[in-house]
Specification:
single chain; about 425 residues; alpha+beta; eight-stranded antiparallel sheet; 13 helices
Amino acid sequence: MEKYNSQSQDIICIVDAYSTGKKLAYEFNKYGKKCIHIKSTSREEEELKRNEFIEELTYTGNLFSLKDELKKFNPEFIIAGSEMGVELADKLSEIFNIQKCNNPLSTTLRRNKYFMHEKLKEWNLKAIKQFKSKNVLEIMNWAEINKKWPVVVKPLNSAASDGVTICANTNEIEQAFSRIMYQENKLGIKNEEVLIQEYIEGTQYFVNTVSWNGKHYISDIWKQNRRRLKDRAFLFESMSLCDSDGKIEIELIEYTKKVLDALELSHGAAHNEIMFTKDGPILIELNARLMGASIEDEAFKQALDKTQSELLALVYSNHDLFMQEFADKKYSKKQHLNEVSFIYEKNGILLDFPKKYSIERMFSFFCFSGLNQIGNAVKKTEDTLGHPGYVYLVHHDEEIISKDTEQILKWQRNNELFIIE
């Protein structure tokens, strides 16, 4: 780890640089920026100090102590490296009087799913009908009054589909409520209320953005392929990079920009999960950080000029260049790019990956990412953290990449990809 020089300038603080946030310091280093990692939570797989940071600090709950530690570095910007760092990054930006940041007084709009949708309603934007309570009877009563099944029950703020459950009756609501209430979610927050929402039919999309001074650049749009999980919600099976100028994509872009404005996301990255329904786009949730969980940069660069993490480093390092070349614009797709998310059907020991060679021989195969080693203990997939790993497919011919994707998904649905005992 580089020793800090008191003469150093341009210090960027990254709070909880996990998931795709791990790439940010490397990208900032390219612009001559020096990065400090602030850890607000413990991640076992991330405990080793990384050379791209000049310093790593741990936040233990005392903001004044952390402020004193950071003073000598005089940070230029403080940004979130993952979902769990969003709130602290906003608080520290306020403490250090950083002007180019999201409004710290409205952080809850970008973190709390309930307030998120209430704000959209104020702006006359499409939003989900919802109700929150710490009382299971009130939650069940709301569903019975609405008389529209199924419904979605979930924590007010978490990540990776944690606790999200689709319920067909009040018994299932009660079970979901008991799994969520008073439990610590994946962000380390104790759930003290539960959210119930109407179930939205449609096709799910991811719309990723980078913003500066309220000007937004659409970095990439993805169409989702999902599988319903018993007693929970959905698992993501695959996603396909969309063109940015199709009829649906244009609607998604216009709606997303209005959502960003409503939720006061004026600076930095956003990962927007949106359902496209028969009535048009409707937000599921906004996340004020990069898309996770694992992004294979080289695959993305085959299809896009710049990844979202590259653009985020650019906008904080050279604002003028970003405003000139990217603000209020959208990406162009150079090749077709698909990601297939692997799924483990049960707990056990991973004995083999019998279809690995067959996948590697596909015309569109680009690489694997995040695969477990044979012999490792593995867990049944019940979230979207991506621990089983991914395969990335790149090709100029849409028919070929679609055919290869469907073949992998067929093997996966038939439980032929992995042998687990």
